[in-house]
Description:
The chain has 735 residues and is an alpha+beta fold. The chain has six domains: 133 residues, no CATH class; 75 residues, no CATH class; 206 residues, P-loop containing nucleotide triphosphate hydrolases (Rossmann fold, 3-Layer(aba) Sandwich), CATH 3.40.50.300; 84 residues; 44 residues, SH3 type barrels, CATH 2.30.30; 75 residues, Ribosomal Protein S8, Chain: A, domain 1, CATH 3.30.1370. It is 49% helix and 15% strand. The protein has 20 helices and 21 strands. The chain has a six-stranded mixed beta sheet, with helices on both faces. A five-stranded antiparallel beta sheet has the order 16-15-14-13-17, with no helix packed on it. Strands 1-2-4-3 form a four-stranded antiparallel beta sheet. Strand 13 and strand 14 form a beta hairpin. Helix 8 runs antiparallel to helix 9 and helix 19 crosses helix 20. The longest helix is centred in the C-terminal third of the chain and has 75 residues.
Amino acid sequence: MMLIKQLDLVDFIGHYEGFLSRPKALLLEGDCKIHLRYIQALESILFTPPQEVKPLESQLQLLKKFGYLKLDEIFEFIKIIRYFMYLKTLKCEGILKEWFDNILIPQSLLECAKTFENNGEIKQGIYLEFDVLCQRIVELKREISSQMHQILSQNKLTPYLVDKQIHLIDNEECLLLKAGFHYVLKGQIIHRSNTGFFYVLPQSIISLKDRLNHLCNQKEEQLFNICKEISLLFAKNFVFLKFINKEFDRFDSYQARLMFAKDRGLEFLSPKPNARNIQICEFKHPALKEPKPISLDFKGNVLILTGVNAGGKTMFLKSVLSVVFLAKYLLPMPINASKSSIDIFKFIHLILEDPQSSKNDISTFGGRMLEFSQILHQREGIIGIDEIELGTDSDEAASLFKVLLEYLMNRENKVIITTHHKRLAALMAGNPRVQLLAALFDEEREMPTFSFLEGTIGKSYAFETALRYGIPKMLINEAKKVYGEDKEKLNILIEHSSHLERKLQKEIQEVQQKQKKLEHKRLQLKEKEEEMQETYKTKMNALEMLYYEAINEAKKAVKLQNSQEIHRQMNNANKIFYQIKKHYEEKSLERIKEFKIKDRVEYRRSKGIIVSIQRQMAVMQLDDGIKLKVPLNELNHSRNVLDTPQVKVNVKMPQSVNVSLDLHGMRAEEALEKLEEFISNSLIAGLDEVLIYHGIGTGRLSSVVRDFLEQHPKVVEFLDAPPKLGGFGAKIVKL
């Protein structure tokens, strides 16, 4: 694959493929999370990796057409069947046990597997006629060997022997003799040596050889009949053989990844759908002998790496895409997986080499444009471009590539580019979806640091690099004069303006957020005001109705001539009046009861604290120290959030706090109780990351723990622990 070569992963992938029992594609079809669960489960058992097995696609096609397999081809199927018979004997739990138990090998194939020795030969006692032929062939070969040694030991032949060895010429055993041998030995010359001697097959051996060839032909005929019989059996079980061949490849992919990870101390990073960012922690590119770990939090859509001659930009680009590539194919890598996260990308494309082609009459820039035209309409992928402005004027290229990059961003692609020119970086710096990364250079030691600074544009280190590689300092100083101070000042201004633009964008975002908060508060206050006005109107309407009832009762009393009736009506009016009065007094008392000592209150335009309360009066100490005695019903609680008295809560620290919790063997209810107590104690102790062991088992306890963590309001994130901390049987929880 071209991408593997571009990313310098050929040797790394080759080492992984060395753990496979047979070659196969890197891609694991299906959900990577499910595949990772099987790999983690496989890590918990001891097993012997499968021996080398040949690809069997063509043999399956032959069986589909009811063709006949050779003995060695049949044995390749037998090796797969025997390996799954071995896997079924292992003490597995959970998903592995379920997987192996679901592979039901037909009894006829189990009996067939017993037919073969470990070296692929047919066992004795299965096919008697075949056994007799094999035995006769062995005996005849012994007789031929014995006869040859007898001829060699004859005294009359000694003068004609060049040596006392039995030679093998064209698969024929013969003797090396001198001229004149026909006086003492009858035989057939089958070859002549460079020194003029003769390779002779004795006549007595020729007759034995004829008998041997006849027996071998009979054996081959018997062997063909046996292969024909087994092939017909395989054809009847074609569907199963096709299935188990595919399952073997799946298991082989799992075990090879696991063994490769153990061999090199690597970790698995499974891509997450809709992660929307690339978070890399301490990745070391495997092609480097002593790599410097790289870390990156790429949340935007475009990442621009600048810094001319600072070193490491191209390798940084390759490293990021390598992480994405290895995660996509679920290959282990040298990375801190627990602190890393990768999105699922539909495609990975790297534009790296100079695309100039004299054969096709394509210039460097023309080749770049051709490559861009092939990816412009793709979506949701990741694209790497090294030296994006290669082959044309930097100012024109900056404007062109700005438009192209924005087009790619709008199609939900992530783009990582390196550039030697600052113009493009300056144009893109104001876009909130663009991140800047500058390669740093140690000017004192005159060498690259292979480290990067986020949020800035890197400067050019052409003069420093030239000095480092032996260009005389006198010539460099002269070059600096030709370059001129104005150009250097312009570069500084570009970097400074870019920094100011990013700072301004950040301040604008902060102001917009504050405006949103203020608008939200304004709406809340408006709703509160409307609610209070509605309550006020309701109460006023009720009081007005009581008032008019009292007036009407008084008017009725005046019209009546009976003094007793007048007194009765007046009493009714007084009752209504006292109801109104009582209502106001109760409201006043309720309001008075709301206040207590040390409350923060307002009296007209003054603010202070209540020092003491006596009946309906309060002593209030103002902020300037003056004390006032004021009626309680004229006080209001302070509405200023800043004036709200502070509430102190004393929480008792747990006696002992651990960073891990083991739930093995617990019931679901008991585990949830322990887990809730553990999370609470961890929060009180100030821990921001803890480890919970729940094991694999039936998956019930794992499911309960996951559901609890998803619903807990103080759990920020949780993920499976790395293999060395428990793998799939544990969770790292961030609080």
